[in-house]
Amino acid sequence: MIEVYAPASIGNFAVGFDALGAALAPIDGSLLGDVAVVSAASSDEFICSGEYAHKLPSDASENLAYQCLVHFRAHVAPNMPSVKLELKKNLPIGSGLGSSACSVVATFAALDKFAGTKLSQVELIELMADFEAVVSGGRHYDNITPCYLGGLQLTGDLIPNKSIALPVDENWYYVAAFPGFSLNTAKARSVLPKELSMHAGVEFAQRLSAFSSLLLMHRFDDALSIMQDHIAEPYRAPLITGFSEAKASLPALGAEIVSISGAGPTLFTVCKTLKAAQQCAQWLESNYINEQGFCHICKLDNDGTRQLTVL
Ligand SMILES: Nc1ncnc2c1ncn2[C@@H]1O[C@H](COP(=O)(O)OP(=O)(O)OP(=O)(O)O)[C@@H](O)[C@H]1O
Ligand SMILES: N[C@@H](CCO)C(=O)O
């Protein structure tokens, strides 16, 4: 049996729309992501379990994880023995935490290991991006690659090996707050402008390249000083109840950055101290999330997708 865990991720990371993503690891040691379990069986079988399984279509053919199994058997490993695939759906749907990416990455990574196909990093990332695009309203790598590789990734189709890992200040904490309601990624993409002005395009390029370069030079405070989302946040904030109030309130509690995680509605902050992160988490639990929501104080998950057990 192969059991693979794939961590939640922050798409965009404020300054890099569709181009930056960061994997998350709660500091309390809990797992925030999906798990795929593959074991030998007399015939192919799919089970979806976990806290959010009931939020997915009951028809297996509509579940991304099962679709990955069908594709993998047809196009990657036609001679793979029959398998039982269980997806433990532990991330909410439409969360802004890379939920569909977690399912896709965990499933393909587990199948690749079980079948012994030894796909390359690029082959796996392309396969994963193909599937995540099916439901996300566009092909973007900024959940897939941090989820798979871990850390903070500068990522895109034109980048060699599809991704470049960027350093961050190891002292940074990330508070991720899922409010308890969903926001469909395709809907959140539909409200964005179809084109950018020359000025907006140049500024986006300057901001992303300077942010990435400053991180590589370990000028972390300078990187934070330009870490703003002028591309998606202005259009998506109105879709997320409470976001604007949080953005106005959290800096006084020590949040250096407050922005939308991926397509939302999850909000994330960057804090330089645990005390600031705890203060922000407390405010978010009181003012931003409902009974279906949650809030985690995290560091980056530098391990990415990994096997939990091999039996
Ligand atoms: N295993 C799966 N995990 C997540 N979504 C799935 C899965 N299988 C099918 N889906 C469908 O894919 C769509 C995913 O929607 P969307 O991309 O908005 O959210 P997400 O990927 O779950 O969350 P996030 O905003 O964190 O990326 C939903 O309609 C959901 O029903
Ligand atoms: N870059 C994607 C992230 C989705 O999680 C978007 O903002 O639409």
UniProtKB/TrEMBL annotation:
Binding site for ATP: 92-102
Chief site of localization: cytoplasm
Gene Ontology CC entries for this record: cytoplasm
The name this protein goes by in its record: Homoserine kinase
Gene behind the chain: thrB1
A GO molecular-function annotation: homoserine kinase activity
InterPro entries: GHMP_kinase_C_dom, GHMP_kinase_C_sf, GHMP_kinase_N_dom, GHMP_knse_ATP-bd_CS, Homoserine_kinase, Ribosomal_Su5_D2-typ_SF, Ribsml_uS5_D2-typ_fold_subgr
One annotated GO biological process: threonine biosynthetic process
Location in or out of the cell: Cytoplasm
Domain of life: Bacteria
Protein's pathway: Amino-acid biosynthesis; L-threonine biosynthesis; L-threonine from L-aspartate: step 4/5
GHMP kinase N-terminal domain span: 63-151
